[in-house]
Amino acid sequence: MTGEAGAFPNVALIKYWGKRDATLNVPTTDSLSITLDRLATVTKVRFMRSLSRDVVTINGRPEPPHSVGRVTAFLDLVRVMASTSLRARVESVSEVPVGVGFASSAAGFAALALAATRAVGLPLDPAGLSRLARQGSGSACRSLLEGFVKWRAGTRSDGLDSTAETLYAAAHWPLALLMVSVERDSKAISSRTAMERTVRTSPLYRGFLETAAGDLAVVETAIGERRWDLLGPTVERHALLMHATALGADPPVRYWRPGTVRVMDAVQALREEGFTAYFTLDAGPNPIVLCPVDQAEAVASRLVALAAVRDVQVCGPGRGAW
After folding, report:
1. How far apart are CA 105 and CA 142, in angstroms?
2. Would you give the end-to-end CA distance of the chain in angstroms?
3. Please, are residues 101 and 284 in contact by the beta-carbon 8 Å criterion?
4. Residues 242, 279: contact at Cβ < 8 Å?
5. Domain assignments of the chain as residue spans, ordered by start
6. pLDDT at residue 188 in the model
7. What pLDDT, on the 0 to 100 scale, is given for residue 184?
8. Which CATH architecture best describes the domain 176-315?
9. Which residues have a Cβ under 8 Å from the Cβ of 83 and sit 6 or more positions away?
């Protein structure tokens, strides 16, 4: 039984930061993202009678036990749904740097969810697939879908109404997203650990919760009307607030590196020169810069010239998992 699927990462404009149910990966607040058109992860899943345990490789390299354990826990959900006990060989080829804040787990578990359900012949509707992928990595439910995607937190205790949906197709607003690499090493603190610690210990987290719904409403309007004057400042401020909550945790979680700050300063300087450029950051040191498509080449050129910047990849809104 074999299935194969691919998915792209997504960039959260309004962040998933906190869970009301950690077991089901149900978020505390709604979030909104853009699925990218580059940096794919393609995964093949083969359920085999000859295996006594799950085997996982990424780019040809065996994954360490803790990573395999996370995949096994996810595949157990699929096995229960499909009434099978077969173990699986999972082979992924990924263009996404792992653990640097570019949503590698979102792309990975979106592709895994689709490939695994195809392998066992489990026909899930979009909502069912969304609920499944979410339990591997919360933001994976957004990478299943194209374009501008909203993940609703829902209110049910069983999480059945916590699903993602496309608000606008990729073609609605072909803006540019510049993935700026200042660090390539995996972060020391996982997003999952940082989120849990922040929610539990940061006195600033309440402020994040109180502003999240309002920020999301502004960003939804901005996308619908293609308004940079609403989108950019809100997205940038929201990302800074998320990172402020992490800095307020005990002990603090600090993802920024000197290069992170230099890129943020450079983006602000570009705006003073008349460019329409704004940054956001997920749980990692590498900024993502949003700008109009016709400014992308110039903005990327300015950023890659910084000594702190290793690479800039220009992406746009893309399709969902395939």
Report:
1. 11
2. 18
3. yes
4. no
5. 2-171, 176-315
6. 85
7. 85
8. 2-Layer Sandwich (3.30)
9. none
User: Whose structure tokens read 């653990």?
Assistant: 99
CA 51 from chain centre, in angstroms, equals 31
- Half-sphere exposure (CA, 13 Å, Cβ side) for 294? 0
Q: Residue 119 corresponds to which tokens in the numbers above?
A: 């392998």
Residue 99 pLDDT level (bands cut at 50, 70, 90): low
- Quick one: fold of 2-171? Ribosomal Protein S5; domain 2 (3.30.230)
Neighbours of 307 (CB within 10 A): 7
Residue 272 host element (H or E): helix 258-272
Quickly tell me which residue has 């499944």 as its tokens: 132
Task: Give pLDDT tens digits for 100-158.
Answer: 768 789 999 999 999 999 999 999 999 999 999 999 999 999 999 999 999 999 999 99
Q: Which of the pair, 96 or 53, is modelled with greater confidence?
A: 53
Strand partners, 148: 34, 168
Residue 52: burial class (beta carbons within 10 Å; 0-12, 13-18, 19+): exposed
Decide whether 2-171 matches 176-315 in CATH topology. Answer: no
